[in-house]
Design a protein that fits this description.
heterodimer, A: about 250 residues, alpha+beta, Helix Hairpins, 2 domains, 5-stranded mixed beta sheet, B: mainly alpha, Cytochrome C Oxidase, Chain A, two-stranded antiparallel sheet, 2 strands
Chain lengths: ~250, ~600
């Protein structure tokens, strides 16, 4: 009489476990759902889109899973229950075809605008830099006093990208050997560097600071250490650094 | 095929029952034996693929910490037990390759497809039994080659399962074996695809119209069509890459390549992006090749254990076709950041967003099937429900990378790794588990233990989420995939505790599979005898003995109704209604 069936103990234990785990998981969620700081002009658009999709998919996720759990509980087998004999509903099929289609197309249209701004149009008055990736380093080349790349007065550095704050930079990407991917997490920048191809991307820093360049495309055994550094500084500091680097190279 | 065939004469394609051990168990023509052969093959490779994953995760949790016995087992890749970067690259490459081509595809298509399709359509065997045997015995050398590649100089392939050129063109010898192995395996899959398509079109029992086919058959039929059309593209690309590697062609090698300081003199005229276009033209349909059969299995199991017709049968069949059709025009979403023209990126974004719709339709119809049901929580049902709830996550997370600007940030990060595992483990593998528990009684004549099945399911479900859900968080912090030591980066250092949690969860996940293995083997002898129809299901495979006799059915059944007529009011207390039961209620005299 007082001995519960063995299944009940397990069920109570599981419920206790879920009860303990759920709040701790929920309290950790805000921490983990944060994106790292953004320091580029267009990174905010990407983050906004990310958060918009997170909200939309998050609501759909919660509704679908709750509905699933509710149905499993509500319609679990009980003596004498008969299942509803139905083959579906055309009206529901139409609704759950059209509503997701509208959501998806709207998301696509919203994304299209940012995509065009980020990858299709290059800004005016930008600083030009050429980056050539190789296993496992970033060769960075700035135009010298003549303001042109690919001339003898170019200034080169290895793995050190310096740039002024508040001015767009256009990077022309090349690769010597295999495919690499130029990834600046805090700038929300990623672009593959493909051998035999020239790819141009741009970005603009919103504040000074130091961050890292990562390689995001598997490029061989040293892929994990193909790291560079990006230094964003005031225009004056940048000019000083450029002149110093040029002097060092000359001597 | 004529219904007036003389009773004692074997119809075309049907083979006499073998008597020798070799013809019965090894070089069998019987689709049921071949299905079981594929099952053992796939489960064996699943174990290998899983062990490779634990090595990958070990390195991610404790970068550089030695594993003593591995120093002896793999002295070149792990001297003194410390993993080298090239060995790490090899581990994740081979984990993905083995799981995709040697575990998930064989278990869903080779094992369940072979075993279930002829039974469910009421046929005596596949249309081409000898071809079927050849498919399996072509898949075996494929597996031998891929395992052999671990032991050649330089180790197994290490260019990722996507094998992007030019890296894959200049990697050590293991990559060549990788290519040959997958080419051989590709032939096997093509033979299977031809066989499935022919069988489903031609060998359906009388009355088994296309819209009375069980959804598993629909899914496998469309999967076979995808295989038939997609695989030749991959094979072509792999032959080109093989030529680049061994014959000095330059399909993927542009001019002026300098590899480790040495100019590649023969290079010129090639296009690295060509490989990606060809690979993903195959690779995206491939994702559906791996998920459609699992969707079919889920659609099969939900009605049986809800005792209710599937909600929206035709919508389910059409959405399979919709996925298969749209699957051909979305491959570019893998290449948004590849240097492909960004305008093309917009096009692929729109088609990718649209392909979410048929998946949504399927999910809502599964929910509709549960609504108002009489739900029994058997092991197959629990795994099918896991499929539905986890596939939702995998499907929704796909919308993030479909958006081109968001993809800039999360492309090639762990967010993608999380997404693919929610589709392929949360989806395909839970679908495979569901199918295994569901059809095991039919395959072996005995049931697996329900209790241990539930224990296995519960641990797997929780541990799975602990391993893979945090991957989204790692990706959001910018952790790249395929990275040997993320602690090199200042912004990723703090992710180590989370990685350790995931790895420990993986150990739990792996150990839980021992329960499945034991349950699987012990139940063959000790399991409760199944009887022909332990789940009281309607489809034809349950209307014959377990295991079915050599020719599946005594008489070919005639089919009178759709596959999911559960709880029909005119049946009163009997909540099932076999497809082959004549409307009058009397069993058919003959087919």
């Amino acid at each position: 009489m007082s001995v519960p069936p063995p299944g009940r103990g397990i069920r109570i234990g599981l419920a206790a476990l879920v009860g303990a785990a759920a709040p701790s998981l929920a309290s950790a969620l805000p921490f983990w759902l944060k994106l790292p700081e953004n320091v580029s002009t267009y990174g905010g658009q990407i983050d906004d889109l990310f958060r918009l999709i997170l909200w939309i998919t998050g609501v759909i996720f919660v509704v679908v899973e709750l509905l699933l759990l509710y149905f499993l509980f509500r319609y679990r087998h009980r003596e004498g229950r008969t299942a509803r004999y139905t083959h579906g509903s055309n009206r529901l099929e139409v609704i759950w075809t059209i509503v997701p289609a509208i959501i998806c197309v709207v998301l696509a249209l919203l994304s299209r605008r940012s995509w065009a701004e980020i990858k299709q149009n290059m800004p005016q008055q930008a600083m030009n830099v050429e980056i050539t990736a190789e296993q496992f380093a970033w060769n960075i080349r700035y135009p010298g006093p003549d303001g042109k790349l690919e001339t003898p007065d170019d200034i080169v550095s290895l793995n050190q990208l310096h740039m002024p704050v508040g001015r767009p930079v256009i990077v022309t990407l090349h690769s010597k050997d295999v495919i690499h991917s130029f990834f600046l997490p805090e700038f929300r920048v990623k672009q593959d560097a493909v051998p035999g191809m020239t790819t141009r991307i741009w970005f603009e820093a919103t504040r000074v600071g130091n961050w890292e360049i990562a390689c995001a495309e598997l490029c061989g055994l040293g892929h994990y250490r193909m790291k560079g550094f990006v230094t964003v500084e005031t225009p004056e500091e940048f000019e000083r650094w450029l002149a110093e680097t040029a002097r060092e190279a000359a001597s | 095929m004529s219904s007036t065939a003389v009773a004692r004469e074997l119809p075309p394609g049907v083979h006499p029952e073998p008597t020798s051990f070799w013809r019965k168990y090894i070089f069998s023509l019987d689709h049921k034996v071949i299905g079981k052969q594929y099952l053992f093959y796939a489960l064996f490779m699943l174990v290998i693929g899983g062990l490779l994953a634990t090595l990958v995760r070990w390195q991610l949790a404790w970068p550089g910490r030695p594993i003593g016995f591995m120093g002896k087992l793999a002295p070149e890749g792990m001297p003194n037990g410390v993993m080298l970067p090239e060995f790490y690259n090899s581990m994740f490459t081979m984990h993905a390759t083995i799981m995709i081509f040697f575990a998930i595809m064989p278990i869903l298509i080779g094992a369940f497809g072979n075993f279930v399709v002829p039974l469910q359509i009421g046929a005596r065997d596949m249309a081409f039994p000898t071809l079927n045997m050849l498919s399996f015995w072509t898949a075996v050398p494929g597996a031998i080659l891929i395992i052999w590649s671990f032991f050649v100089t330089g180790g197994a392939a290490q260019g990722g399962w996507t094998s992007y050129a030019p890296l894959s063109a200049v990697m050590p010898k293991g990559q060549t074996l990788w290519l040959i192995s997958l080419l051989v395996l590709g032939i096997s899959s093509l033979l299977t695809a031809v066989n499935f398509i022919t069988t489903v079109i031609n060998l359906r029992a009388p009355g088994m119209t296309f819209f009375r086919l069980p959804l598993t058959v629909w899914a496998l039929f469309i999967t076979a069509v995808l295989l038939l059309l997609a695989l030749p593209v991959l094979s072509g690309a792999m032959i080109m890459l093989l030529f680049d590697r061994v014959l000095g062609t330059t399909f993927f090698l542009p001019k002026g390549l300098i590899i480790s300081g040495q100019p590649l003199t023969n290079a010129g005229g090639g296009q690295p992006l060509l490989w990606q276009h060809l690979f993903w033209f195959f690779g995206h349909p491939e994702v559906y090749i791996m998920i459609l059969p699992a969707m079919g299995i889920t659609s099969e199991i939900l009605p049986v254990f809800s005792r209710k017709p599937i909600f929206g049968y035709r919508a389910m069949a059409y959405s399979i076709m919709g996925i298969a059709g749209l699957g051909w025009i979305v491959w570019g979403h893998h290449m948004f950041q590849s240097g492909m023209n960004p305008i093309l990126g917009t096009t692929f974004m729109i088609s990718t967003m649209v392909i979410a719709v048929p998946s949504a339709i399927k999910t809502f119809n599964w929910l509709g099937t549960l609504w108002g049901g009489n739900i029994r929580f058997t092991t197959p049902m629990l795994n099918a429900l896991a499929f539905v709830s986890m596939f939702v996550i995998g499907g929704l997370s796909g919308i993030f990378m479909a958006s081109t600007p968001v993809d800039i940030y999360i492309h090639d990060t762990y967010f993608i790794v999380g997404h693919i595992h929610y589709v392929l483990f949360g989806g395909s593998l839970f679908g495979a588990f569901a199918g295994l528990y569901f059809w095991y009684p039919k395959m072996f004549g005995r049931c697996m233990s329900e209790f241990w099945g539930k224990v296995h399911w519960a641990i797997t479900f929780v541990a799975f989420n602990c391993v893979f859900f945090p991957m989204h968080f790692l990706g959001m912090r910018g952790m790249q995939r395929r990275i040997y030591d993320y602690t090199q980066y200042a912004h990723l250092k703090g992710l180590q505790p989370m990685n350790q949690f995931m790895t420990i969860s993986l150990f739990v996940l792996g150990l839980a599979q021992i329960i499945l293995v034991l349950n699987f083997f012990l139940s063959m002898r000790r399991g409760k005898p199944a009887g022909p129809n332990p789940w009281r299901a309607n489809t034809l495979e349950w209307q014959t003995a377990s295991p079915p006799p050599h020719e599946n059915f005594h008489d070919i059944p005639a089919v009178y109704r759709g596959p999911y007529e559960y709880s029909a009011p005119e049946r009163g207390a009997d909540d099932h209604w076999p497809q082959n039961e004549p409307p009058s209620g009397r069993p058919a005299a003959h087919g």
